[in-house]
TrEMBL record:
Organism the protein comes from: Natronospira proteinivora
Signal peptide: 1-27
Keywords: Signal
Source species taxonomy: Bacteria, Pseudomonadati, Pseudomonadota, Gammaproteobacteria, Natronospirales
UniProt keyword Signal, yes or no: yes
Record protein name field: DUF4878 domain-containing protein
Length: 157
């Protein structure tokens, strides 16, 4: 076998791996799926008590209905997570709307619970720790979606 043929054969596994990764890129490039993954990662980060990981999903341009910016939100998240011995979140993404290539909205139901019974009650509306979240995301210059606004209210369902 010639030298160039051997080099091509040696590179074949790398080429196949690259083709496989490119072929799997559809979901990663889908804005709705990326936003779903962001919400799941933020939920897992909060349950793990990681303020830093939660906040990496928040834009520097963040503002909420109370006028809080990213720094104030970080302090609020840090204080809340610090107070929790154990945190279990139950999220239900009710709707995601990709309005433009750079803006998306999500409606999320969030149950804050400690044990299994409390988690079940939080999703049936029997727990006062059930929140309805209206989230707005922007796709930023680094091509990452980040939260720019969050409005919430107590929810019943």
């Amino acid at each position: 076998m010639k030298s160039s043929a051997r080099k091509t054969m040696a590179a074949l596994p790398l080429l196949l791996l690259a083709a496989l990764l490119i072929g799997c890129g559809g979901a990663a490039d889908d804005p709705e799926q990326r936003i779903r993954a962001l919400i799941v990662d933020a939920e897992q980060a909060a349950e793990a008590g990681s303020t830093r990981r939660v906040m990496r999903h928040v834009s520097e341009a963040y503002r909420d209905e109370a006028g809080r910016d990213k720094s104030e939100l970080r302090n609020l998240v840090r204080a809340y997570l610090f107070q929790q011995d154990s945190l279990q979140l139950v999220t239900r993404i009710r709707h995601i709307e990709v309005a433009t290539a750079y803006r998306a909205h999500a409606e999320v139901q969030l149950g804050l619970a400690g044990d299994a019974a409390e988690r079940a009650r939080s999703m049936t509306g029997l727990n006062a720790n059930n929140l309805q979240l209206q989230l707005t995301f922007d796709r930023e210059a680094d091509d990452e979606w980040r939260l720019i606004r969050a409005d919430w209210s107590r929810g019943s369902e």
